[in-house]
Amino acid sequence: MAKGPAVSICIPTYNGAEFLAETLASANAQTFDSIEIVLSDSGSTDGTLDIIRAFQSRFPIRRLPPPPHGMVANWNYCIAHANGQYVKFLFQDDLLSPGCVSNLVSLADEDPGIGLVFSPRKLLISDEARGHPFCQKMERESSDLHLGWASLSRIQDGRSLLADPGLVSRGSLNKIGEPSNILLRRDTLLKVGGFDPRLRQVVDLEMWWRILGQAKVGFVDAPLASFRVHPKQMSVANSDPLQVIAELKRFAEIALQADYSVAFTETTRHMLHRMRRKNLCFEYLYLQYRKPVHWLRSCLGLYENESWRVLFNSSLNRKQ
User: Contacts from 184-187 at CB under 8 Å and sequence distance 24+?
Assistant: First the structure.
């Protein structure tokens, strides 16, 4: 029986023609030999398929049949069709350094208990992103994510990171990063289940926490991937403030109810409870106007003895 590839590089795409050729070239340039490239397109209309066909004439790319609708469904579809011992996501606008897969696999092979290996990544800031407010925010908050951990080792139990005092109180909430700079053991993915389709902005973070609760984590202290920041990326498309606040509330609720929550410090637990209780209406207005709550109440015509709950509930229902 033929042995399958060690690593499946999974590339979910949708209208990614602008950067996809660079992305595919970086996948093909890997120094690691035992790789399959699995590509799943969600119905692109911008020339993405022409780029894929051009690259298929030069090196093997396994293009999957059309996936279920939706970003997260496409990610899970890639996992379901991956044959490798490890799954390495590569998003259509990101890049891998030539030694990325080799370095991540080398560490993962040291201990079968490792379910996730990550590394720092570089930021590629497009010219258009430099004048875009959300992209500017991403650039400020997305550098050197791993420095937010109070303690980070080359190999450590995932629950020690869930117990890290900096888990939610230092730096970015996602201190591991995006899927493009991460290697996942496929058996671990099958054990914890797929990405949660109820989420968009923190769907990767929710998965990382689930894996931390079940497996060891490896860290390679070298930038092995590049995360591109530009106005057309999915993080920008999913950045509606009210929806983000609602998603963070849902994420906090999921985390507090999970089995791994026993590892949380009291500070982490307290901050997640605060996140879960956030008032979407006033949070949204604050993000829009940067004004204190008493000013917002006044503008909304609410007196001190009047409740904001009716307004809050109607606002939430309209968004959902």
Answer: 184/86, 184/87, 184/88, 184/89, 184/115, 184/116, 184/211, 185/85, 185/86, 185/87, 185/108, 185/114, 185/115, 185/116, 185/215, 186/8, 186/79, 186/82, 186/84, 186/85, 186/86, 186/87, 187/85
